[in-house]
Fold this protein.
Amino acid sequence: MGPDRNTHIRNFAIVLALALIVWLLPGGRTGAATIENIFSVLFLGGAFFFGYRLYMEHRDTILGLEERQRGILYGAIALALFAIVATTRLWRDLALLGGMLWMLMLGAAGWAIYSVWRNYRTY
C-alpha cells in the first residue's frame, strides 16, 4: 500500500498554484514576505525555547564547569549565534571572503564546544 500517485500530483499542483498566485497577484510578494517573517519568528522562538530547555536541564553540569571552560562555552555559543544572524550579510555583501569567514566562525564555535565537552568528559 504505497502512496497514491494521484496524491503526489495533486500536492504538486497545489504548490504550483500557490506559487503562481504569489507571482501573479498584486501584493503577492508582500504576502509571501509576511508569511516568511511569521515562520522565521516561529522558528527562532522554537530555537530559543529549545536552548532554554537545554540550559535548564543541564544547568548543574554547566555551572559545575571551571570558569574558563564555561567562558569558552558561552563565547562559542555567542559566536555561533552571531554567525547565524550575519549569514545573509556575509554571504551576499562580502561574497567569497564573507562565506569563508562564516565557515571559519561556525567551525571555531563547533571546535570550542567540542573541546569543552571533551575536557568535561576527562576525569
